[in-house]
Task: inverse folding
């Protein structure tokens, strides 16, 4: 019975195609499946670009500044990183990136300026000077030990 259905399928398929003597097959209108008019999907661009909210830039900057400050101070960030990324992406798509860059750069420079003062304080310089003098003393001591060792080898060679 399975053979009968295969022959029926072959028979119905062969009825839809026209065979030429050169082995090429040309499909008829029924075989192509076009029974009616097809609909086209048209995608149009926005007529006007959506506008940002009135305080979006300022609010977003405050969030970013808080997040950068939290990172610099090794504390937890209040906002989701994905939310911050999306906010930066939105600002950049609205050509606010130069302003954003200047603001971020200023925050980073302020942080570095605030942190560099601890290295300019006197106790740090005193400790640094002491460490340098210790290193130079150890270096000269090492050179003297090497020269004494060479002299010891020379003396043992002579004896």
Result:
């Amino acid at each position: 019975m399975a053979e009968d259905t295969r022959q029926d399928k072959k028979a119905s398929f062969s009825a839809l195609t026209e065979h030429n003597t050169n082995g090429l097959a040309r499909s008829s209108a029924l075989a192509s499946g076009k029974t009616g008019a097809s609909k086209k999907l048209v995608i149009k661009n926005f007529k006007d670009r959506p506008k940002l909210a009135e305080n979006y830039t300022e609010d977003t900057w405050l969030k970013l500044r808080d997040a950068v400050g939290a990172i610099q101070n090794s504390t937890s960030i209040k906002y989701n990183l994905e939310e911050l990324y999306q906010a930066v992406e939105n600002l950049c798509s609205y050509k606010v990136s130069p302003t954003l860059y200047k603001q971020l750069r200023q925050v980073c420079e302020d942080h570095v300026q605030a942190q560099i003062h601890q290295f300019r304080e006197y106790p740090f310089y005193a400790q640094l000077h002491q460490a340098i003098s210790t290193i130079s003393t150890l270096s000269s001591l090492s050179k003297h030990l090497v020269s004494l060792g060479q002299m010891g080898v020379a003396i043992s060679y002579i004896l």
Observations:
- The first strand starts at residue 17 and ends at 19.
- The CA atoms of residues 123 and 129 lie 10 Å apart.
